[in-house]
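fold-stage: in
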Amino acid sequence: MKSPFVLFIIMALLLGSCSVIAGGVSHWPASLVAVVVIIAMKLWNDRVKILAWPMEFLLAAGVTMIVINLARLYMLPMAY
């Protein structure tokens, strides 16, 4: 894997921003799934080189994190 340190920085930034945005709702169930998907994306991208590293990959990782977290929030029951 190329640049595992840069991948670690990207993951730390994404998880830190999710913690700030989530407020009182735990984001960890969805963020754990997103981390696994993003690492799989990175391994796949190292082989086929579709996304440029690191900027295009950062965009794709951010969108992946947002979509998975929003999907989890959609599945939660409403808190009235």
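fold-stage: in (second)
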Amino acid sequence: MLEQENHHIPLGILFAGWLLGFSMFSPMFCVSPITHILKEQLLLNHTQIGLLFSAPILMIVAFAIPAGIISDKIGVRKAAGIGVIILAIGALLRGIAGSAYSLLAFTFIYGAGFGWCYPNLTKLASDYIPKQKAGMAMGIISTGILGGCGVALAITTPIILPLVNTYQGVFSIWGIAPVAAAIVWWIVVKKPQGSVQLETFKERRVSFRGLMRYRQIWILTVIFILHNIFFYTWSGWAPTLLMQKQATPEMAGLLTSLTIWAGIPAGLFMPRLSYKLGLRKPFLWIPAIALTGAAFSAQAISLEMSWAITVVIGIAIMAQFPTILALPVEMVSKEEVGAASGLLISIGYIGGVIGPLIGGRILDITGSLNFALLILAGASIAIVCMTFMLRETGSTKKLVISKGFKKDT
């Protein structure tokens, strides 16, 4: 591949990936700041709002595996290009939703595009970025994901809502980003030179079935489930937690967005440090220890000091996230990256579905998020344990790749 031979990271590809990540997540994370409005106007309880927030993640579970396989077949440009069009249509339709049922239906359409695009972010790194720089590229693309989350959390209530005055207007404004991403994607992303295409879809299905036997991919997938339980439960319900500490809705959104703003520099720095050290596993278990402490402290700490918790969580989450997404590139052959990423993302994002739902149900029953925070602490402790079952794939260890990585016996 031309880019790999020259060891250059194409900036246009990075920008297209960054904007795609931003446009996927900003329409999702604009829900949290207007939870109180949706609750009042649509007569929803916390569990139902948890479903509305996590519906796009549910569609990742449904679509990521077939999207990854099809991406290996037709190429990332076409696969993600189709996905971003569906994403844009669904996001714009949410702006005309007049009931809870129509809003949920349009959110599922948006989520279908979301699930179709997501595994292609890793495939984009595999097809266009030199392998030794894939982690750094995913770190940069991940800042687009976090940027979408952070901007939506920070400006939806204090800036966008006063301009449009309705939840439909909020969704319409955030539907613009996917439209821009679709235009940029089809203009900037071209077919990669020297890309490897498997001969038939049948061969790809055999390759995917082979992945099912790889113990390391499954360990990484369990880690990703636990990671997503923490991140999406925190992101979905942190504004409510802060409002229970007497924060205004505007302040709650801004404080929660600090998770994202602290995570962006971490997303840029941590992958570089990982590649410089030649290690991957410490960037999973050390942040998990920090997340455990943050979850135990979140309820007891005062509103004035809550910013410290959100910053710690942001740094720790973004040390883990690009590491997890980049590991399949090092674990399997290039031909299998799409299928491996689809497996990781589809099953891993089950955590992003069940976490907010459990948090909402606990809040409905107890009126508090205390028990939900204990669950998050337990998930982080489990990540520490699971990480030590992974094989180190960094440059300090020899990674043997023929067709896929060596199977565990």
